[in-house]
Amino acid sequence: MSEQRTNGGAPLLAVKNLNVHYGRAHVLQDVSFEMGDKPVALIGRNGMGKTTLCNAIMRIPPAHATGSIAFEGSEILGRPSYKIAGAGIGYVPQGRRLFESLSVDEHLRMAAPRRGSHRWTPDAVYELFPRLAERRQNGGMQLSGGEQQMLAIGRALLTNPRLLIMDEPSEGLAPTVIEMLIETFRALAADGLAILVVEQNLAMATAMAERQLVMVAGRIFAETTAAELIADPELQRRYLGVERG
Length: 245
Fold this sequence. Notes:
By secondary structure, the chain is an alpha/beta fold. The protein is built from 10 helices and 10 strands. α3 packs parallel to α6. The radius of gyration is 17 Å and the shape is globular. The model has no long low-confidence stretch (mean pLDDT about 90).
């Protein structure tokens, strides 16, 4: 598919024959896919290996991975997490993982680039999420769920990534907050940011990306489109066990 290729001709992200073990448990089994500039959604029920895939890409232990993960044509499997982030991959983890002892502003200043001209700075994050500007002196754990997610996204953007990976960004959020985040992500994608969204919320996944990868039992079970999923309740039940809300 042409959308899997960047302007340079190579896939932005290419995962090939990826296997991940936790001890003796073989969690990911020969996972392969490519993506380019356009948003991609990875959907699946809980326990299918979606977060393990994120951890493998970002090299978050204790997962042990073999195979290949190439970013912009360069192998990153096995590289330290900070170098993967420095190569241009931003990550918004499931559960947000904020620091209780740091304020909103301290979270952002800590992650801000130290020198040079960059698209994303703390001021740019405050412009994107005005609510964070109002709460800049509040602790990370004093925020609402939606505000915490904004902070986690802003923190990831401060790495000025080429690709943003988000693991269950809609988890625990009110529908109005989810709608706001969808519009934000669409604007970021239109601005040139590639997005891989990992979701079990079908409404968000299909609103975010036309291309849908379905993960079942540690494998990429199928590839489909948002239009096909929205139009077919049987596919929704088969892949996620629920119908689109």
